[in-house]
Amino acid sequence: MDHRFLSNAYVVGDEPGGTAVFVDSGAPLEPLLRFVSEHGLTPTHVLRTHAHADHVEHEDELGLPVVTGSLSTGGLEVEAIPTPGHSGDMVCFVVGGELVFSGDTLFKDSIGGGDFGLVRRSVMDVYMAMPHERRVLPGHTDETTIGREWEENPFVRVWRGAAPEGTERVTVGGRAATLVVWSPDYDGKGKAWVRYDDGEDAIVGGSRVVR
Question: I want to staple 23 with a disulfide (CB 3.0 to 4.6 A). Which of 10, 64, 79, 99 is the partner?
């Protein structure tokens, strides 16, 4: 994890002495390269969840083909699923049916900002349809599971009808709104779903909300 942006980079291999892929590159590479060396792995590709700077910073240093689609390499089977919303190019990668690298769409206790309708659709129609035991490795900070986010994520709980919408009145950039959901966020500043008085729904950083 990068200490500035709290962004993650990963490497996953099929078996010792086998094939590996990197997932994003916005964190220090040394621990990942050390893991590759210690396990005798041969990296073949970089999987890119999206092209924001904090996720592609070290791509050129790796010198590997960058992939945004499904892939079979060595013993690794990678399924790429479009999850637009935070960005138009956002994809998640399911590796071996066991792990999903979620980029900046689904976090522990939170979701990514962006187009409200698209983010909601990606979270609820893609992620929440996955097996609950599946591990989620997000683009920032802590690992989680689909089942945990189904039960605990404040956005998911409201979207699936397990918790009521909030009614607190707030302002965002001087604009009056209702605070529908407040959640922790990976940066410690919180994440909010607000509904402006004209009916527009938005996902905004907690630091923008005056309560």
Answer: 10
